[in-house]
UniProtKB/TrEMBL annotation:
Superkingdom to which the source organism belongs: Bacteria
Keywords from the named record: Coiled coil
Coiled-coil regions listed in the entry: 54-81
Protein name: Zinc ribbon domain-containing protein
Amino acid sequence: MEDELHTARDLFAQAAELPGDFHQAEISLDFMDIALDIDHSLKKAESLLEKEKHQQALSTLNEAENELKNFNGTAVNHLIEKISTSRESIKLAQLEKLLNSEPDMEQLKSLLWESDELSAGEAAEMTESIREKIVSYTFSHASEQLNSNQFNDAQFLVEDGLKYAPDSEKLKSLKATIEKEQTAFENAQVQRIEQAVNTAAKDEQLNETDAVEILSIEVKEDNQGNLIVSGEVESVATIPIETIQAEYTLSTQEGTVILSNEVYVYPEKLFPGEVGRFEFTHFDTGQQKEAPVAEIDKVTWYTNE
């Protein structure tokens, strides 16, 4: 029990050589050989730990522990406790090395589970350090998703992070922020849709009823006394319009109608902001005492929508 293993073995060997059938001494002597092997394994594991060969060290301890499965008692428990202590030290060192290698989120989760299983005092600090890294990782990536308006992804990341750090005020605050930002974004989106619908309705009305602005119309008399009516119109629609027709009236200065006519604008299709022209020559209208008055009565057009 004081780890004087060689001395203990010698004493058990002496006891086994005494006259009589001392079976317990022989069992204890066999156990001491195993205990010495385990002591050697513990020292080997410690050496492997110094070389950062953590997995080999853990395998060495597992093999040593298996040698004790057919024994029980206080001395056996003592050795098992020593093996457990050594195992926790190795696992703690292994976790610390992995933690310093900038693990990703999934690796951090695994490290947290392993750290939680350890009972050493240093493990509590290790667990808290891993948990802080999970919080930082989650906060950073969720914030990126939030900045891109990927609210569901951001919410998923935060809720997943809270599974491993349920008391994190940082993540709780971010979760509340995501919810508020999502609500604000959705409300703004509804307003944008309503505004777009209203704008579309106005555009549709414009395109159907007020797509053409009359820029000019005039009437002249050529050398043969023919009346030439010409003018310009502009498309104020939001979409292309085509087959534009202008209906006009020629009247005397006193308002007496001389004639009415329809003429098509060219080019045949006008895009928003483009200007179209029309011209028509009237023959045999008779000699006019004074220049007639030209007035457009109506303009019609077609849209593709």
